Amino acid sequence: MTSTPVQLQEVVKQFSGRTVLESIDLNVHGGELLALLGPSGCGKTTALRIIAGFERADAGRVLIGGRDVSRVPASRRGVGIVFQAYSLFPHLSAEQNVAYGLAVRGLPRRERRKRAGELLELVGLAEHGAKFPHQLSGGQQQRVALARAFAVEPSVLLLDEPLSALDAFVRQQLREEIRRVQREVGTTTVLVTHDQEEALSMADRVAVMHQGRFAQIGTPSEIYRTPASSFVASFVGVVNRVPATINSNGRVGVLGAELTTSSAHRGEATALLRPEDLQIQPDPEGRALVTGTTLRGAITSIEVTWQDTPVRVDVPTGTATRFSAGDRVRITPAVDNVLVEKEAAA
Fold this sequence. Notes:
Blueprint: E1 6-15, E2 18-28, E3 33-37, H1 44-52, E4 59-64, E5 67-68, E6 79-82, H2 94-104, H3 109-122, H4 138-151, E7 156-160, H5 168-185, E8 188-193, H6 196-202, E9 205-210, E10 213-218, H7 220-225, H8 230-235, E11 240-246, E12 252-254, E13 257-259, E14 267-273, E15 278-282, E16 288-295, E17 299-306, E18 309-316, E19 328-333, E20 339-340
Parallel strand pairs: 3-8, 3-9, 6-7, 7-8
Antiparallel strand pairs: 1-2, 1-4, 4-5, 9-10, 11-12, 11-14, 12-13, 14-20, 15-19, 16-17, 16-19, 17-18
Helix pairs in contact: 2-3, 2-4, 3-4, 4-5
Organism: Kineosporia babensis
InterPro entries: AAA+_ATPase, ABC_SmlMolc_Importer, ABC_transporter-like_ATP-bd, ABC_transporter-like_CS, Mo/tungstate-bd_C_term_dom, P-loop_NTPase
Domain ABC transporter: 6-236
């Protein structure tokens, strides 16, 4: 099993005098899938291109398998890459596309065909090897691109927004497929995405980037349940911003309840609460008013106003029929600890 760690050490990158990466450090464990998640312009694609060797850092080092490859050309880093664009050769069949890198390496034709067939079977395309790219769907073409990347047995696989051009149903299928193949092959993988659901569902760990730095690195559960900042909480998932007061003993008064927080601030503040971390009950004397509902499949969002503040509460769809626009309700936190938006605290 391939198990090659990747490290960025104090990497700096500037474009036209603008700093895109500000002395970042990153350790990707051997065999894991790490997602670089963040909004456009945060530096995630630049970080990926520096690992690949397509860009050179202005300062710092890139290590692959413990070897400093900062000055090593991309072709000699042992890295495979899959882009958003499939970049398949239109005049070659799926099997020939997968085997292309093996042909460049001089493997005999019989071995190339055997390896290409194994990989096409791995990505669920065993019966499509003779088809040309124009005869395949977008999702199938991306599977061929993935198989081609694995064919040369890279020590590290880099995925640059590989699913963003596909429709939602195909994206969901390929997320599961890529994760399954990555686990089976064991290749260290770095995924660049701006899609939080993609990152949380596929990655062993997620590195959230913001303005050229890492805002937080952790497991999907850590990133979602215990965000390190208001930016992470807002970018990864949905949060309600609710007026709160931090009293002298450090407790937070919010929505009529008293919670704990790690904030050292005192006085007026803004508490960040996930929609699923709120409870809602019908109450004719309640201080919150239902303004509408939105069906989201297994859950339904109840939109309410509480002291002129819009608040979203997510409940199982089966129980949502209890609430209608105009109803008076009581909403309370279902958690003991709350993140306070420090920038808003007095």
